[in-house]
Amino acid sequence: MRRRLALLAAAITSLVLVAFLVPLALLVRTVAADRALDAAISQLQSLTSAVATATSTDALRLTVEQVNATAEHPVTVLLGDGTVLGAPVARTPAVELAARGRSLSVDVPAGQQILVSVQGAPTGPAVIATVVPKSDLRRGVTTIWLILLGLGIMLVAVGVVVADRLAVSMVGPITEAARVSHRLARGDLEARARAAAGPPEIRDVATALNHLASRIRELLRAERETAADLSHRLRTPLTALRLDAESLRDPQEAERIGSDLDALERAVDQAIRDARRSESASADTPGSSPRTCDAAAVVRDRVEFWSALADDTDRTVELDLPGLHDGPICVALPAADLAAVADAVLGNVFAHTPDGTPFAVQLSARPSGGARLVVRDAGPGLSSSSGDPTTRGASGAGSTGLGLDIVRRAANASGGTLRLSEAPAGGAEITIDLGPPRRHDADMTAATASLWPLRPARPARPARPR
């Protein structure tokens, strides 16, 4: 914006200077020419009395020679009898016109010729002539033009500097407001713009931006409290379900349902902690829960969990996972979030494909760091009539439409991507690229790798997801 304002000031100043300096330059050239011509005419007029009263040609020749000895421009006297005194001059039509009693000036290749008619001379009408060279007609014009050009450049420079100083007073507050908006977009709800800087309109924008930031913080706080309250309300039905599970006569059934309730209760507790997490707490604060995990351990655990249901529904599972001794594959995603991603894509296979449909799970390390998780099936594939299935709330199969949106957001949060395509067998293929962790996150992951799985694997058959 500063550059555009400077260019605008330079353009306007240049137009004004051109409108003023060009006529002034032409006027200077005209004045210089008139000054040279007036000087030459005065010189010629000083000879008119001598020519008009001359009684002897020799005396008049001597007078002309004395004038030419000191004159700036050579003078010629053409007498009525054809005698030419001084520098030779051709008898042009202009000379003949002057001889008939008309003084004039005409343009010639060397400059401008001045002809003064003298009537009443003893030898008849005479003509006094001289030529003013072009150099004398433009003497001093170039210097004045250079001075005017320099003055114009200086005025343009001054105008640009003044416009730039004025632009700083406007651009600075605008840049600060833009910087604050970017900080708000990154989640820094403490960012505020200085409402006392800049013109009144920009101050109004800064005030509105600060009000918007405060409003966003209030809405987020209300949303977190609502989510936390809703999660807390789930504790009552969880307690009732736990009592029902403890009253079962079959110990294996009681253990299986109790294990499911433990996992559900941990998920509810995690939801409450996430909802009431302080806005100012940094996710990268040393000592906090690790923001990375071993993707191999997490995916292996989730595949083991879903394999039980695959056996129940006659599905064959093709696995391509790192071995237990291949080392960890660290990704920039918490273990709970990656588990939710794996559950979402594997749960879709069971929810949207018929029983007996085979599927494959592949996990590999990316050359640039991180991991790539690919889940493909031989089912009917993704429906093209329901729009983008990764859009939140969009579902063509009667579900909530949140699963793939959760996967997409988790992949983006790790610095990766989510891609949907058609599998070689004709079904759906979901490719999830997960980014690598930062240095201190990777150290925390290595130190806490033994904490996963968060719950023991259940040999019992899980309930079919809905």
From TrEMBL:
EC number assigned by the record: 2.7.13.3
Annotated InterPro entries: 2C_sensor_his_kinase (IPR050980), HAMP_dom (IPR003660), HATPase_C_sf (IPR036890), HATPase_dom (IPR003594), His_kinase_dom (IPR005467), HisK_dim/P_dom (IPR003661), HisK_dim/P_sf (IPR036097)
One Gene Ontology cellular component: plasma membrane
Region described as Disordered: spans on this chain: 274-294, 375-401, 447-466
Record field: catalytic activity: ATP + protein L-histidine = ADP + protein N-phospho-L-histidine
Membrane topology, as annotated: Multi-pass membrane protein
A Pfam family assignment: HisKA
GO molecular function: ATP binding; phosphorelay sensor kinase activity
Domain of life: Bacteria
Listed name of the protein: histidine kinase
